[in-house]
Amino acid sequence: MPLYRDEAVVLRTHKLGEADRIVTMLTRQHGKVRAVAKGVRRTASKFGARLEPFMVADVQLYEGRSLDIITQAESVGSYGADITADYGSYTAASAMVETADKLTEGEPSLQQYLLLVGALRSLARHEHGASLTLDSYLLRALSIAGWSPSFDDCSVTGAPGPHSAFVVQLGGVVADAVAPPGAPRLDAKTLLLLSSLLTGEWETADDADDRTRSQASGIVAAYTQFHLDRGLRSLEHVDRAVPAGGRGASASQRGPRGQSGQFAELAGGVAGSQTPIVPQIEAS
């Protein structure tokens, strides 16, 4: 059908001509779509603000020869303003959408779509520290893509953990018998934080100290860059500072636990677990 509708999160935009814009979106049902939004750079545009990065919209598109055409856009999740108002959240969101862009070149993935929407919503609501939310998103997105790291059992032999040697190229922690010389060693607190970020144990993650967070972020960045061929340019600009007055988002920023938008419950599980990844969620 030449005309279709879908729910989409805007990953990036590019100027086209004097008034148009090319919008790259990750859609719920059609995967990644590049489409032209005509006239959205004019001040009189009715839906230009709905097609900015980090926004979630219900869009109607017309199939074109090379690029589709956006004919309608209705806001579903207005996260852009809240995210861009905070530098830490903005840099984290930029790394998230760049990761989603790179991981969704192939077939559509509902799991990747729901994970990204939930992560952006969590950033906009300041449920957790921006850096923690980013690290959790990266670990889960890579797991859905088939690169789930191991932070307990040996990723090579399967020998039960705990193990302290972590080798990015081997997929996580490894037993001493197979650990390469000079392999970095992680302490128990860092491994616990990494595991908590992967599985959504936010009470543990939010209580981690600064040193543990810093070491975990370095591991997540290295693991992500290794599995994404060209790496992530936006990771260089991520603000890793801990907000003043607390380890992560303040209690007032996080919102009530159990809220439908809680990022902790978004994935519901990760690749290799027995829990289905990503239950049905709302994007409002």
Report a brief summary of the structure.
With 284 residues, this protein is of the alpha+beta class. It contains eight helices and seven strands. Strands 1-2-3-5-4 form a five-stranded mixed β-barrel. A two-stranded antiparallel sheet has the order 6-7.
Q: Could you characterize what this model shows?
A:
The strands form two sheets. The protein has a five-stranded mixed β-barrel. Strands 6-7 form a two-stranded antiparallel ribbon. Helices cover 32% and strands 18% of the residues. It has eight helices and seven strands. Strand 1 and strand 2 form a beta hairpin. The longest helix has 18 residues, at 210-227. By secondary structure, the protein is an alpha+beta fold.
Short key terms for the protein model shown above:
single chain; 8 helices; five-stranded mixed beta barrel; two-stranded antiparallel ribbon; 284 residues; alpha+beta; disordered C terminus
Write the layout of secondary structure elements.
Elements: E1 3-16, E2 20-27, E3 31-37, E4 56-62, E5 68-77, H1 80-84, H2 87-103, H3 110-125, H4 130-144, E6 165-167, E7 172-174, H5 188-199, H6 202-206, H7 210-227, H8 251-254
Parallel strand pairs: 3-5
Antiparallel strand pairs: 1-2, 1-4, 2-3, 4-5, 6-7
Helix pairs in contact: 2-3, 2-4, 3-4, 4-5, 4-7, 5-7
Strand order of the largest sheet: 1-2-3-5-4
Proportion of helical residues:
25-40%
What composes the largest sheet?
5 strands, mixed, barrel
Mean pLDDT: 83
What structural class results from the helix and strand content?
alpha+beta
The count of strands amounts to 7
Low-pLDDT parts are 249-284
* Strand residues, percent: 15-25%
- The global form is elongated
Distance between the terminal alpha carbons, to the nearest Å? 28 Å
Radius of gyration: 20 Å
Per DSSP, the total helix count is 8
Give the H and E element order. EEEEEHHHHEEHHHH
